[in-house]
Design brief:
four-stranded mixed beta sheet, single chain, globular, alpha+beta, Arc Repressor Mutant, subunit A
């Protein structure tokens, strides 16, 4: 073994974990990760528990959204010409099932696949697991008259949904899904975490770090830091927060049409609560008659209050710049001009703003945008790429190629592939055939006009 390489790997892993697990970073990411309703509750709790914090402005978000939903000139839904019912998102809370169904509805796949995913959702337990999956798979295959392999494909789709870890068949798979979805700068760190979860879950539960250290040849401090990350950042029960405390789907931003194009409104900053330091307690710091114990208490809470206010401000700034970039990229989709979002990965956003991938992941997690086409989950606007393009855009390109072909001499899948290659889209011929079938387009000989 290359000792120098191993030392570098140890150092790289330890350095990234130290940054990610510092109390300050944990608090920042925690606040960044919160959906709006949870943020408001968290702010109220902090004000109640820290005498140095006070409201400068209280939350008026619900009043704003109720007002918006009552306007006679509200945007219409193009499909049914009815007003977008914001109130159904505000008044009702989101259960795990509803949260997943919404993600299914914007899925770019066949109706059959959507139906299978819905069946899987119905079989999730309250913690988000698919226990007895083999039995469930066979039942769905029989009930819907589909190949069991199609159920496996649907499971893969479900496991890509939020909350991360959903649809796992056991704890190990649940944690591995979350590790794969998490943005790591270091591949070595990601591989280390996967090895610990895959091979040493029992040792981890028993804090048997020495055994893991010996097996993986990583320093004990590095293993302990990795264990802290797994226990602190990953959840063994991804669906539990929905069953315990359903979350209202409240938008953090609004995208509105204006004369110059579109306008982006930061609803959190404009209508959400804002904080200030309590002036009465600040005056006490200047009082010479106050004892040292009280002064120490005030200073300790003052430090916490300043950090909390700074984290709230950091949240507003980070979300705003990321959302602006996303909206700018997906403008045509949000205005209803395009059927699908353009490719925009979290990794690209990370590089654009010089932010850690985990920060981007937390920034867009469980956030919503009010748009002319309805309430949109931000993560849905960052579709994964397939070799540089989303599958939706590749399908659209295939559809366009076939629509413009010479019907006297229609294109074979190989010829379609060659045209895609000319456009810089690198996929396999069988992928062309698969996408063509999903578009309900016949083979070239059946498309020919005689």
């Amino acid at each position: 073994m290359d000792i120098g390489l191993n030392l570098n790997t140890n150092l790289e892993v330890r350095t990234e974990l130290n940054i990610m697990l510092s109390p300050k970073m944990l608090q920042t990411l925690k606040i960044l990760n919160m959906p709006y309703a949870e943020l408001v509750e968290n702010i109220s709790n902090e004000v109640e528990n820290n005498p140095l914090l006070d409201f400068e402005k209280k939350d008026t978000m619900i009043e704003y959204l109720k007002f918006q939903s009552s306007l006679p000139y509200r945007e219409k839904d193009e499909k049914n010409n009815d007003p977008i019912e914001l109130e159904k998102f505000i008044k009702s809370t989101t259960t795990l099932s509803q949260h997943l169904i919404r993600q299914i509805e914007i899925l770019d796949t066949t109706d059959e696949q959507k139906e299978i995913v819905k069946y899987l959702v119905k079989n999730l337990d309250q913690n988000g697991y698919l226990k007895n999956y083999d039995e469930i798979k066979q039942h769905i295959a029989n009930d819907l008259s589909v190949d069991p392999k199609e159920v496996d494909k649907a499971l893969e789709i479900l496991q890509g949904f939020e909350p991360e870890g959903i649809g796992a068949r056991n704890l190990k798979e649940c944690l591995l899904i979350q590790i794969n979805e998490y943005g790591f700068e270091s591949n070595e760190l990601k591989d280390l975490l996967k090895k610990i979860v895959s091979n040493h879950l029992d040792d981890l539960a028993e804090n048997n770090f020495e055994k893991i250290t010996n097996a993986l040849d990583i320093g004990k401090e590095g293993i302990k830091a990795a264990a802290d990350f797994i226990k602190g950042y990953l959840t063994p029960f991804p669906g539990s927060k929905f069953s315990e405390n359903p979350i209202p789907a409240i938008p953090s931003f609004a995208v509105k049409k204006s004369k110059s194009g579109i306008e982006i409104v930061n609803l959190e900053s404009k209508y959400g609560p804002s904080l200030k330091l309590n002036p009465q307690y600040l005056k006490l710091l200047e009082d010479p008659n106050i004892d040292e114990k009280t002064i120490s208490y005030i200073k300790e809470n003052l430090k916490k209050a300043k950090e909390f206010i700074a984290n709230i401000q950091k949240r507003h700034e980070t979300i705003e710049k990321v959302i602006k970039k996303i909206v700018e990229t997906q403008k045509d989709f949000l205005e209803g001009k395009e059927k699908f979002p353009k490719p925009l990965t979290q990794r690209e956003l990370s590089e654009e703003f010089g932010l850690h991938p985990s920060t981007i992941s937390r920034t867009i997690a469980e956030k919503y945008i009010e748009s002319p086409i309805g309430i949109i989950k931000v993560k849905a606007l960052c579709p994964r790429r397939v070799l540089g393009l989303t599958s939706a855009l590749i399908k659209a390109e295939i559809e366009k190629i076939i629509a413009n072909e010479n019907r006297q001499k229609p294109l074979t899948d190989l010829e379609i592939l060659q045209k895609l290659l000319e456009k810089g889209i690198f996929i396999k011929r069988r992928t062309v055939a698969d996408y063509r079938k999903k578009l309900s387009l016949s083979t070239y000989n059946k498309r020919k006009n005689f």
